Amino acid sequence: MLFLLAGVLALVGIAAHGGDPSRLLLVAVLDLALAALGFLVRWERLRPAAPALLGLAGFAVLGLSTWSFGGVAAGTGPFLVLLYTWAALHFPRWILLAYVVPAGVAYLLPLVLTHRPPEVLSSALVLLPVAVAIALLVEAQARHLRDDRERLARIESWQSAMMSTLAHDVRSPLATVQFALEMLAEDADADGRRTADAALRQTDRIRRLADGLLDVQRIDSSGHLRLDRRRTPAARLVRDAVSYTSGKDIEVEVDEDLEVFVDPERFEQIIINLVGNAVRYGRPPVVVSFARAGDVDRLEVRDHGVGIPEALRPRLFGRFAVGGPDGIGLGLWIVRSLTEAHDGHVVAEARDPGVAMVVTIPAAQG
């Protein structure tokens, strides 16, 4: 982009009749050629320091530009600083120090060839140290930011591995514990059943935690979920999802002929999470409806509880945003991530009474 800007300014200089037009045309051609080279070359296939060669070519063109303008360095100085700053963002400090000699030659040689007075030549004693100092400061800051980013990447990788391992390892023993508690509850007296039921609720919470951690790990590891989208009967999709919940006081209102274009497994998770939240935090009845509205399909899960405080809504679909004694705050974040993977969006709309979680996705075509 710097070379592209320099080439355009050289063409402007020709139009303004500043300097030698033929030399300025050469400067413009060289700048535009370097810009094209910067865009077209697959630099990632070369050594990390390979693009620094563009900087050396840039210094040579800057020197030619100063000479073409008869020794006027008004444009050379700022571009020299910009080249140094660009180099500082991408290369180690040894390259910045190695640039000192070619940058000094590119600045001073045209001034000498055009017989500029000594006070003009002495400007290099100010410009070059300033350019190098700015570049070293930028390089230090950029290096710290890169180190921080790499450290965060390592932490996230460790966190993802830990969550995945925890979620997988806890499921098998948890199933055994849950089965044992159910057997004990059948043969226990009233007090024993209450104790077993309380333990079963906690095992169910741990299971939801494990499922949530697995969903988080899948979303984080892929960045953008790959979906197996196909035309799916909406009524069957909703009924299957509701069957995984308590099923009590849940009303389903879906057109039997409606087909939606979704990944059934992923979209089922959206419904399960929303219905589970409505049952857990709202009041009955919970109404699940799915209908077409123009060019979108609209899923709505409504409860008749106390609603959601206004202050909570901006962060409602964030990770660990809500949580509580029966949840960990991942459910709605997973809903949002899965909805966005379907090119849709989810919002919480106030109702009187209660709240409706509304998911809209593009309608199936044809």
Q: Note the main sheet.
A: 5 strands, mixed
Query: Could you name the CATH class of the largest domain?
Result: Alpha Beta
Strand content: 5-15%
pLDDT averaged over residues: 83
The CATH H-level superfamily of the largest domain is Histidine kinase-like ATPase, C-terminal domain
Please report the total strand number as a whole number. Answer: 7
Number of helices: 12
Number of domains: 3
Order of helices and strands: HHHHHHHHHEHEEHEEHEE
What does this structure look like?
By secondary structure, this protein is of the alpha+beta class. It folds into 3 domains: 2-122; 169-222; 230-362, Histidine kinase-like ATPase, C-terminal domain (Heat Shock Protein 90, 2-Layer Sandwich). The chain is 62% helix and 11% strand. The chain has 12 helices and 7 strands. The strands form 2 sheets. The protein has a 5-stranded mixed beta sheet, with helices on one face. A two-stranded antiparallel sheet has the order 1-3. A hairpin with a 4-residue loop joins strand 6 and strand 7. The model has no long low-confidence stretch (mean pLDDT 83).
